[in-house]
Specification:
The protein folds into 12 domains: 129 residues, Sandwich (Immunoglobulin-like); 104 residues, Sandwich (Immunoglobulin-like); 109 residues, Cadherins (Immunoglobulin-like); 86 residues, Immunoglobulin-like; 98 residues, Immunoglobulin-like; 111 residues, Immunoglobulin-like, CATH 2.60.40; 71 residues, no CATH class; 103 residues, Cadherins (Immunoglobulin-like, Sandwich); and more. Helices cover 10% and strands 39% of the residues. It contains 15 helices and 111 strands. Helix 6 runs parallel beside helix 13.
Length: 1627
């Protein structure tokens, strides 16, 4: 659109409409200027010269910063500061700026200038032009109209909208040409145009399903504008077409036994309607029998009829059914068809097998051709289909033999072996000769009993078992087990060691085997050096009758162990003593000094011995050959070598772990000549008479000791004479292998052992038998678990167990014989041909009623019935009949119900088949009992109540199928007719099915009206033809279904509601209510706005579609709209919905609903904190759209702020500073300006402005302390940090930045800046030199902190530096004086007395206080017993007088140490030399010269030791010979024995056993605290077991060492190696 000419024509109008209102208040003029312009003016178009209209100087506009407010984030206009013109910056769209369609649209602006501040209000009215075309809210409108809608029905359409106002808005509507529709235009209250679509001709969906229309809206502008929308009318279907099947009747042929799920026929029905009206559901009608519905399945969705159950031609040959097709409409319509299914006969009966007799289990050695079972076969089919063949698997050792018609015997055809197969599953299969053939099978499980026919088998034929010597007696060596494939007692094995003597020792004394599990144990400790291996046999014997056994060879190999310590035989020495040798000091290098020889009793590598020095006084002097043990000199002796040399040699074998022995050799060197001080003879005779006497005495005593030992050995080696039998002792258990009692048996006369063994008997490990004759003792045997006793004796107990076994065997044989006889008799009687006997009786006969005399009819002797065990088969777990064995009569045991036995009504006869069986010989009779029907069942309906839903629009004559009644009786006793109770609307019609059953239909004879009667209750009666007749009834409840024939109705046609503006969102305006007389979905109503309701009204109010509540949706403003008109439609939820309408008018009441507004016109921030009082900070304006008191406002700020508000003109206020400001107290202020109107209730608004303060340098730096004391350790590193001295300035930025300085001060011509330095930025203080406490003690100076403000401010602080002492000076020894690093030499006489001051050490330290305190200590002292040192004054004194043994020269090293941390020290070495007053010569040796040399001492010791040994040997010999031998009767060596030795050195109540079995048994009792199992008797021959009271120790029975340990040790003296001087014996 071109706007140029229009702008020229309108230019004069801008000045015509211009008016200026001026008022002056306090020299400030505020004007309201009004302009009018059309919308959509071009950018840059001039509106007016604002400077001229406001009377402003154009030249000062830039300087005074003239500006316009920005509205809604868009700057539509601006001021040209050069010309003062108001021009357009962006196109103005009236519809965007004023979305509400009010008659006028204003743009309010504020023009502001400064110096001084002035504001001008400007109103710019925007005039409308026709720049918007009408448009519809939806481009496409969809309407769903039922084809049953009557002509004249109206339908609301979405109205078009036009953003323009007045004549530029919508004027009219046009509809495209249509035969069925037209429109009607209406005007709304606000002048808007609305259109209704009117149906002028009835619709037909089958003719045209969719109608496409175009609606055009045209406005009244010049030129006019228009908009269009498509109307798509979808014609809704009504259910006016019933489903139709392709055919009225179908005939289908189906073979019996058709697979379940197989398709019979697929029915198809069609419906011309659409949607749910055309969706079809298939069902059986009530004319279809229950049996037919059970046999066939009808898919309700697809119409497929499939087989549901197995079909039997013999039961039913024809199935008739009626299928109904029903659509899914609310008022459904139906179609029907009839279907006949003809069944084709097939071979469908399987042959049957009956097991008549079976024998299981049987022994595995059963004879060939023995009969195992008898079976019979049958087939219900006839002809070839009824002929059967029977067979079993060919790989089984069995065969079938026909004994009579359809009876077969199962025979054993081959020998059986249980170990190969313990049981047989024999499957007998029978197959008929039909096509295809059918078969059946039965499986018989034949279990075989075990026979002892297998010998025990060992996994190996030879066992090699390595055993390490020194084994513990009773230790397990191996487990030697055999396997026997037999079962039970035939499988239980007992293990024995086959006796074999080696060196008069039985194997059972060396080894023991557990008879139950074959665990092999060693009964003694083996020594490799004595015994190398053993070879014997072990036998395994089963417990069968007769028992079978086998044996295996066992080879025990003894393994060597390093258990012998090397024995050093050369050089010989007494036990634990040293070997002393004397060699000349002039011995040459390589000379043989000694040779160490050791022997080891072990073998192979364990006996290889190597030699090593364990200790050597001088490693450079002697060498040792590690293989031959020779000790040789490596060099000649020197004067520095000690006179005595001590060598310790270790002899170590090669075992693991290695064993060793040591020998100590003490070598003494002898000078060839003795040197003295003066004239002592060179060849001094040190071998004096005393030495000679000592040697003679030692030899004599040694000889006597040797003779005594030999005599003792001879006496002990004499054979002892046999002693008398020991008297019977208490608590004894004796093994008597050679007696008449079984092997592995104990005999005891003590009740304690009897109770212990009795407990083991309960565990199945022992058998406690009857006492030995005369009641002297008990007999206890160990037996394998779950087995009998082996036949090892002829005792009564063994005989009893054998007799029990024989009795059990005879019983088993007797029972087996009976079973075989029964089978033979049964088989011999099967040749008799079975007969068939037929009887007929009525059902429900009383119990005990006689059917017939079966014995007479079968020709049986009544007297033999009981003996021959006549019996009847039991059917279906019920025994209906039985035979009186006294009279032979067949009588009724339980009432017979024909309907229970024969559930199907297909056959006219019901037969009960029985089998009567007799024995001796076996005969079978077939009995058929026909059950005759009586009228004992009344008709009954499948459901007592039938519910029918019939629409009230259903036409007269419509038929409805009913459930038929059923009667289990047959023939005339079944259902005959039906009767219906009296009814005006319904009657029945009876029909007869193909099988003679009666069906009935319910017929509607009068139209139904749901409003008159919603349900009808009828009674249907079924009557049978029996005499007397029986009947059954069912209730029929007909519920009349509603059709949607009533439209919803509102309570009123129109409503007027008063509503205050600003009503809360969600508040209820009005609740509308409409009712519908229909029911169900036809009466359910939902509410909606009609299309006549404006979009603004729908945005403002919400309508609940379910309950009709109208609520406030948006805030309501009286200034925007005062009246809201709306039209509400109530629509039901029926398929063809009906509607009702009402009008609602809402009148808005005005309220105080506009909040006052605050506008910040000018604001200065930040400002300096020293801003003057009464300075203007901001200018604000306030306004309120309300009028009267609601539009009058009050403004205020918080009273505790240093600010005040002052009104400058009407609704304009200045914000002033009322008090001085301080940024350090508060850096910024949040000033909240609140404005409140005077309405009721009052409304308010607020604005918060943040005033930021700029810093001014008005604060002096502050130190945290006024005085700093800093300790500094001397010897500090130059540049080390001493401390950090910082100040704080609360100002900001450069006013806050501090610089630090040291204020100059000279001390001893030295400036502080030469001693210390401070970092000007952070105040870190540093030392510039190293301080010495001994020179400088402290420093005092000042530090200044200065900020960077203008002008700068500063402050200072005093700093005191204190130098701390450090231990940095080493003590200095000033007395005794010596040259650097040299020794101090002193000479003192040897006669110096005790306590004499020898020297005094004095040291000084330059440090102070505790660091200078000095203490003295000996660092080295040649003789600690000779000198003492005072730790505080350093005096060295003698502690005793010098002796001739003291060295001539003494060396003392003294350390002087200060008390610092760490301590420093200095040392001084003092060398003292002793001087004799006079020298004495050898001739002046005193008379008491020490001639008692080392040799004398050794001779005396040797003589004393040998004498002591001699005395001890004599005493021991006397004691042994004087002791009386106690008579005892030694028991012969026995196997598995337990011996009581009360009178020996072993404790009372003690058992000694050599059997590991008893050892393990007694060990278990030990854990219970009843026994004590001790160490073996020497040589590992036996175990010692004692009974002790619970929780007590051992009783004291002897005073000897052996009694204390409860073990009798047998001491045997072995011969040992003899040396030159003595003999040692090992115990």
């Amino acid at each position: 659109m071109r706007m140029g000419p229009f702008m020229d024509a309108q230019k004069w109008r801008r000045y015509v409409w211009l008016f200026l209102v001026t008022s002056a208040v306090f020299n400030s003029a505020f004007a309201v200027t009004h302009y009018s312009i059309p919308e959509e003016m071009e950018v840059g178009s001039v509106v007016a010269n604002l400077a001229t209209d406001l009377g402003l100087d154009v030249q000062s506009l830039t300087k005074r910063r003239m500006r316009l407010d920005v509205i809604a984030n868009k700057k539509y206009l601006d001021i040209n500061k050069e010309t003062g013109e108001l021009f357009i910056v962006e196109k103005i769209d009236r519809e965007y700026l004023c979305p509400a369609k009010t008659s006028s649209c204003f743009l309010k602006l504020d023009a502001t200038i400064e110096n001084p501040i002035r504001m001008f209000n400007i109103e710019l009215e925007i005039l409308d032009i026709n720049d918007n075309s009408p448009h519809f809210r939806r481009d496409v409108m969809h309407l769903d109209i039922s084809e049953s809608t009557p002509a004249g029905e109206r339908f609301s359409l979405n109205n078009a909208v036009d953003s323009d106002i007045g004549s530029n808005s919508i004027k009219t509507y046009y509809l495209s040409e249509s035969d069925h529709f037209t429109i009607e235009i209406q005007s709304g209250r606000d002048g808007s145009k609305l259109a209704d679509l009117v149906l002028k001709k009835a619709l037909d969906r089958e003719e045209q399903a969719v109608h496409n229309l175009i609606l055009t809206a045209v406005d009244g502008g010049v030129p006019s504008r228009s908009g269009t929308a498509n109307i798509i009318v979808q014609v809704l279907d009504t259910n006016d077409n019933a489903p139709q099947f392709d055919k009225d009747s179908y005939t289908v042929h189906l073979s019996e036994n058709a697979p379940i799920g197989s398709l019979v026929v697929k029915l198809n029905a069609t419906d011309l309607d659409e949607g749910q009206n055309s969706e079809i559901v298939y069902t059986f009608s009530l004319y279809t029998s229950e049996k037919t519905q059970e046999t066939f399945n009808l898919n309700s969705e697809t119409g497929e009829i499939r087989v549901k159950e197995i079909i039997n031609y013999e039961d039913f040959k024809i199935y008739n059914m009626e299928v109904i097709a029903t659509d899914k409409a609310s008022n459904s319509l139906t179609g029907k068809c009839k279907l006949t299914i003809l069944i084709t006969d097939m071979n469908d009966n399987h042959p049957e097998i009956s097991i008549r007799s079976v024998t299981s289990p049987v022994k595995e050695d059963v004879a060939v051709n023995t009969v195992i079972a008898v079976v019979s076969v049958s087939d219900k089919d006839s002809g070839e289909n009824g002929q059967v063949d029977i067979h079993i698997s060919a790989d089984l050792p069995f065969a079938l033999k026909e004994s009579s018609d359809n009876y077969y015997e199962l025979l054993v055809s081959e020998p059986l072996d249980r170990e190969k197969l313990p049981e047989y599953d024999i499957t007998i299969t029978v197959t008929d000769r039909g096509n295809p053939p059918l078969s059946d099978n039965e499986t018989i499980t034949l279990e075989l009993l075990d026979v002892n026919d297998n010998v025990p088998q060992f996994p190996q034929t030879f066992y090699t078992i390595p055993v390490m010597e020194n084994n513990a007696p009773g230790a397990s060596l191996s487990s030697i087990t055999a396997v026997d494939p037999d079962l039970h007692e035939n499988q239980y094995l007992v293990y024995f060691i086959i006796e074999k003597e080696i060196a008069n020792t039985s194997m059972s004394m060396l080894f023991s085997i557990n008879p139950e599990n074959g665990n092999l144990y060693a009964l003694k400790t083996f020594d490799y050096e004595i015994e190398k291996d053993f070879l014997f046999h072990i036998e395994a014997r089963d417990s069968g009758v007769p028992p079978l056994s086998s044996n295996v060879t066992v080879h025990i190999i003894i393994m060597d162990q390093n258990d012998n310590t090397p024995l050093i035989v050369s050089p010989w020495r007494a036990q634990g003593s040293e070997v002393k040798e004397t060699i000349p000091r002039s011995t040459d290098k390589g000379t043989l000094i000694a040779k160490v020889i050791a022997i080891d009793s072990d073998s192979v590598h364990n006996s290889r011995i190597t030699y090593q020095f364990l200790q050597n006084t001088d490693a450079t002097l002697f060498s040792l050959d590690q293989y031959n043990g020779e000790i040789r000199t490596m060099r000649m002796f020197s004067y520095r070598d000690s006179r005595d040399q001590r060598l310790v040699v270790i002899a170590k074998d090669n075992g693991e772990p290695a064993l060793s022995a040591t020998v100590t050799i003490k070598l003494s060197t002898v000078e060839t000549a003795l040197k003295t001080y003066t004239e002592v003879p060179l060849e001094y005779d040190i071998f004096s008479d005393l030495n000679l006497y000592l040697v003679i005495g030692l030899g004599s005593v040694s000889f006597l000791l040797l003779i005594t030992i030999l005599v003792t050995i001879v006496l002990k080696c004499q054979k002892a004479k046999p002693s008398k039998a020991a008297p019977p002792s208490r608590n004894s258990v004796i093994s008597e292998r050679n007696s008449t009692i079984a092997d592995s048996t104990l005999v005891s006369n003590d009740a304690y052992w009897y109770s212990l063994f009795l407990a083991e008997t309960r565990k199945g490990k022992l058998v406690v038998r009857q006492p030995v004759p005369k009641g002297a003792r008990y007999i206890v045997s160990s037996i394998p678990r779950s087995t009998g006793l082996t036949e090892t004796s002829d005792s009564a107990a063994s005989t009893l167990q054998v007799r029990n076994i024989e009795t059990m065997e005879s019983r088993m044989k007797s029972e087996a014989l009976k079973r075989y006889v029964s089978v033979i008799i049964l088989i011999s009687a099967l040749h008799t041909t079975s007969s068939v006997t037929h009887y007929s009786i009525s059902e429900e006969l009383d119990e005990g009623s006689i059917v017939a005399n079966l014995a007479t009819d079968l020709g049986l002797d009544v007297k033999t019935l009981s003996k021959r065990k006549i019996r009847l088969d039991t059917l279906a777990n019920k025994r209906y009949l039985d035979i009186n064995k006294e009279t032979g009569e067949l009588f009724i045991v339980e009432r017979i119900d024909r309907e229970l036995i024969c559930t199907t009504k297909s056959g006219t006869t019901c037969v009960l088949k029985l089998d009567a069986t007799i024995e001796n010989p076996v005969r079978m009779f077939n009995i058929e009992l026909e059950i005759l029907d009586i009228n004992d069942n009344a008709p009954h309906f499948r459901r007592d109540t039938m519910h029918l839903d019939i629409s009230e629009s259903t036409p007269v004559g419509e038929r409805f199928s009913l459930n038929n009644a059923v009667d289990p009786d047959i023939g005339v006793n079944s259902i005959k007719t039906y009767y219906l109770s009296e009814s005006d609307h319904f009657s029945i019609e009876i029909q007869t099915g193909r099988d003679g059953s009666k069906f009935t239909d319910l017929i509607l004879k009068k139209p139904l009206d749901r409003e008159e009667q919603a349900s009808h209750n009828l009674i249907l009666t079924a009557v049978d033809g029996g005499v007397p007749a029986r009947s059954g009834t069912a209730s029929i409840i007909v519920r009349v279904l509603d059709t949607n024939d009533n439209a919803p109705q509102f309570d009123k046609d129109s409503y007027t509601i008063n509503l205050t503006e600003n009503a809360p969102i969600g508040s209820l305006v009005v609740k509308l209510n409409a009712t519908d007389k229909d029911e169900g979905t036809n009466s359910e109503i939902f509410y909606a706005f009609s299309l006549y309701t404006s979009e603004k009204t729908q945005q403002t109010f919400s309508l609940n579609p379910n309950n009709g509540e109208i609520r406030v949706k948006e805030l309501i403003n009286y200034e925007d709209f005062r009246i809201y008109d709306m039209e509400i439609i109530a629509t039901d939820k029926g398929a063809n919905s009906l509607t009702g309408k009402c009008k609602v008018k809402i009148l808005i009441t005005d309220m105080n609903d506009n909040h006052p507004e605050i506008s910040i016109r000018s604001f200065t921030s930040p400002v300096k904190e020293d801003v003057a009082v009464n300075t203007v900070i901001a200018v604000v304006s306030v306004s309120d759209k309300d009028s009267g008191e609601n539009g009058q406002v009050d403004i205020h700020i918080s009273a505790d702020l240093p600010f005040a508000l002052k009104e400058s003109s009407d609704n304009y206020y200045e914000l002033l500073v009322s008090e001085p400001l301080d940024r350090e107290k508060l850096p910024e202020y949040d000033i909240t300006i609140t404005v409140t109107d005077r309405g009721n209730p009052p409304l308010s608004d607020n604005e918060t402005i943040t005033l930021e303060l700029l810093d001014v340098n008005d604060n002096v730096p502050q130190f945290p302390q006024t005085f700093y004391t800093i300790p500094v350790m001397e010897n500090n590193a130059p540049g080390a940090s001493l401390s950090s001295i910082t100040a704080v300035d609360p100002d900001l930025h450069e006013n806050q930045y501090l610089v630090y300085f040291i204020i100059e001060k000279e001390i001893a011509n030295t400036s502080m800046s030469m001693l210390f330095s401070i970092n000007p930025e952070n105040g870190n203080l540093y030392a510039l030199k190293t301080f010495d406490y001994e020179i400088e003690k402290d420093f005092l100076f000042h530090i200044e902190a200065r900020d960077s403000g203008v002008p700068p401010l500063s402050s200072n602080v005093t700093v005191h530096i204190i130098i701390m002492d450090q231990n940095d000076n080493t003590p200095l020894i000033v007395s005794p004086w010596r040259a650097q690093g040299s020794e101090v030499k002193e000479t003192i006489p040897r006669s110096t007395d005790k306590g004499t001051l020898i020297a005094k050490v004095i040291a000084i330290d330059s440090d102070s206080v505790h660091n200078s305190r000095i203490t003295y200590q000996f660092l080295q002292n040649t003789d600690a017993t000779l000198f003492s040192l005072d730790q505080y004054n350093g005096e060295i004194r003698t502690m005793r007088m010098f002796s001739y043994r003291d060295s001539r020269d003494q060396r003392l090293v003294v350390i002087a140490k200060d008390n610092g941390e760490p301590a420093l020290s200095a040392t001084v070495t003092i060398k003292l030399s002793t001087v004799e007053t006079a020298l004495k010569t050898y001739t002046e040796v005193p008379l008491e010269y020490d001639i008692f040399s080392d040799l004398n001492l050794y001779l005396v010791i040797g003589l004393g030791s040998v004498s002591f040994l001699l005395l001890i040997t004599i005493l021991v010999t006397i004691v042994l010979k004087c002791q009386k031998a106690k008579p005892s009767k030694a028991a012969p060596p026995s196997r598995n024995s337990v011996i009581s030795e009360r009178n020996s050195t072993i404790a009372d109540s003690t058992l000694v056993s050599n059997d590991a079995y008893w050892y393990s048994l007694f060990l278990a009792e030990t854990r219970k605290g009843k026994l004590v199992v001790r160490q073996p008797v020497p040589k590992g021959a036996r175990y010692i077991v004692s009974s002790i009271p619970r929780s007590t120790g051992l009783t004291e029975t002897s005073d000897s060492a052996a009694s204390t340990l409860q073990v009798r040790f047998i001491f045997i003296f072995k011969s040992c190696l003899f040396s030159y001087f003595t003999i040692y014996c090992g115990f």
